[in-house]
Task: structure prediction
Amino acid sequence: MPHANHANLYLQFARNFDERPDATFLDTVEGHGYSFAEARSAAGQMATALRELGVTPGDRVAVQIDKSCETVILYLACLQVGAVYLPLNTAYTGEEIRYFLGDAGPHLYVCQPKVLETARALGKECDVPRVE
Result:
């Protein structure tokens, strides 16, 4: 089987987005989820938002949020933009986050709303252009 170095994970799903729009893409035990068409639409909207925040191909996006369907959608949006998705554990301490932000140099740091002010302070300290 040939290996496609030029394809990313989003492109691997693209065929199903086209061929199976009503099929389930993601589902949770609570019954919340996305069809392929809904996932494509949501990822496209989120990719637009990322671009509006100044994220460009090759930029890193640090993400410290709970696991959810929306986290997967954000990952797909990063792939659409050509950005590098950097997942960070929600249990990391401020010192650990400071290390990752300083080392990775992300353009955007996405965090939980409850820690936004602390995250913005860390982002400013680490020269992260955007914290949302």
Q: What stands out?
A: The mean pLDDT is 90. Strands lie at 24-27, 33-35, 60-64, 84-87, 108-111, 130-131. The CA atoms of residues 105 and 128 lie 7 Å apart. The two ends are 41 Å apart (CA to CA).
